[in-house]
């Protein structure tokens, strides 16, 4: 059972890394100090799907990590 969870976790982690790298670059922390006014646009289309996919993958990674530590 633990081996299956580890394999699932590896697959999720590769997908999460890919989803993060595919996202469009923002200004990062530059917007916090007055820069990057263009970062206040809304996400549309593929960018929105990729954003939600990243959140879902991060939650799944957390869940599999928790389950792996409990087992």
Automatic annotation (TrEMBL):
GO molecular function: protein-transporting ATPase activity
Coiled-coil zones: none
Listed InterPro entries: SecG
Main location: membrane
Subcellular location(s) per record: Cell membrane
Transmembrane segments: 6-24, 49-70
Key words of the record: Cell membrane, Membrane, Protein transport, Translocation, Transmembrane, Transmembrane helix, Transport
A Pfam family recorded for this sequence: SecG
GO CC annotations, alphabetized: plasma membrane
Membrane topology (UniProt): Multi-pass membrane protein
UniProt GO BP: intracellular protein transmembrane transport; protein secretion; protein transport by the Sec complex
NCBIfam families reported in the protein's UniProt record: secG
Family recorded in the similarity comment: Belongs to the SecG family.
Alphabetical list of PANTHER family matching this protein: PROTEIN-EXPORT MEMBRANE PROTEIN SECG
Role: Involved in protein export. Participates in an early event of protein translocation.
Name this protein carries in UniProt: Protein-export membrane protein SecG
